[in-house]
Amino acid sequence: MRVLVIGSGGREHALLIGLAKDPSVTELHVAPGNAGTSALATNHDVDVASADAVLALARHVDADLVVIGPEVPLVLGVADALRAAGIATFGPGAQAAQIEGSKAFAKDVMAAAGVATAHSEVVDNPAHLDAALDRFGPRWVVKDDGLAAGKGVVVTADRAAARDHAAECLESGHPVLLESFLDGPEVSLFSFVDGETVVPLIPAQDHKRVGDDDAGPNTGGMGAYTPLPWLPDEVTRQIVDDVVKPVAAELVRRGTPFSGLLYAGLAIGKNGPSVVEFNCRFGDPETQAVLALLKSPLGQALHATATGTLADLLPLEWIDGAAVTVVLAAENYPGKPRTGDVITGADGDGVLHAGTARNADGAVVSSGGRVLAVVGTGADLAEARAQAYERLATVKLPGSHYRTDIGRNALEGRISI
Ligand code: GLY
Fold it and tell me: What is the 82 CA–ligand 1 centroid distance (Å)?
């Protein structure tokens, strides 16, 4: 099977590593990829937001399967164009991708499906903003209604900061969603979804804030670990039965079935799991940890999802143990990152590339905010964490930063539900 992966992040590098291990995968291509992916796949410099360009590439490489990593091409309908041309594609069409593309759409689907989520209000008129803010608090959750690469969410006890973020979104023409704050530890649960068939992966936890102990602004994700020692299997089953399956069924009922990876982000509060967000694709950096423990052939699972035969897939098998991924970010991320710095030690085991490129001399340089995701595995969380940080210590990037506490609260038994 010839597979074309769309995207350029650590998630796509992880997908390629998983695909390369599947004996049914004979050839790998990626667009645009990064400096690390070229060791496993042929990189193609193509505009992945252009359905015509992706379709032309898929035909050129004679892809048997296209796997779309990021949300932007999905929301823009690239999967629809590929499927219309008869190419097996992993990733939802534009309408189902609205589950991530529009927070208001996701809320509507959840209401119809009877899924627990935060109380919310959409504000699209600046004149209504102050009154709406008064109906929330003492902690405000303000979300840009459109795509914002994980950085469109502000959670704060400072009303003025909440107001500033909301006003900024409204000024740029996007409605904002105000939400009540959901208390409780967060879980990212990924599921392969093909219509009403749902196959969950193992749950993970992201670390969204930039600094240790959840200090500083939100990012796309600074690290993750899996599985979650504090989450009983019964709660994972509850998430599948009460959240993922009803949402998948509701999308089928609306005539826009979901095909691909449905990411449920939840807070586990005292009344059980409640949805924080849905994404229409694999999460980054959780994927780097989750796929490190997948024993089953990844290509076959993605192909089954893409071709509507997920119900026939053998149950997924997992390596016993734990995985931790730690993101190395460029100076100033999540603000405008410094780029173009030479990175050394980025070719070791478990070092997955994200914002990397090669300069004119062929050296690996930083080209984005989240530069690398370093993965460690082990018999338990302590071993996985130790390996991830040992591997990270061998990488050098001037001005870079990372969190030192990925998985630490779970390891020290400080998370409970
Ligand atoms: N890790 C958060 C996300 O992928 O959206």
Answer: 25
Q: Hey, how many other C-beta atoms are within 10 angstroms of the C-beta on 34?
A: 26
Which of 205, 206, 226 has the most ligand 1 atoms within 8 A of CB, as the residue to mutate? 206
Residue-wise pLDDT for 34-72, tens only, equals 999 999 999 999 999 999 999 999 999 999 999 999 999
Give the pLDDT score at 397. Answer: 98
Residue 185 Cβ < 6 Å to ligand 1: no
Contact 238, 273 (CB under 8 A): yes
- Domains in the chain with CATH codes: 2-93 (3.40.50.20), 125-174 (no CATH), 184-312 (3.30.470.20), 322-412 (3.90.600.10)
The phi and psi torsions of 284 (rounded to 5 degrees) equal -130, 115
Q: Is the CB of 223 under 6 A from ligand 1?
A: no
Q: What CA–CA distance (Å, rounded) separates 211 from 387?
A: 21
- The neighbour count for residue 40, using CB atoms within 10 Å, is 16
Q: Are 375 and 359 in contact (CB under 8 A)?
A: no
Q: Which atom of ligand 1 is nearest to the CA of 286?
A: 1
CB 303 within 8 A of CB 1: yes
Supply the pTM of this predicted model. 0.94
Nearest CA to ligand 1 atom 3: 283
From the alpha carbon of 150, which atom of ligand 1 is closest?
Answer: 5
Is residue 101 within 6 Å of ligand 1 at its C-beta? no
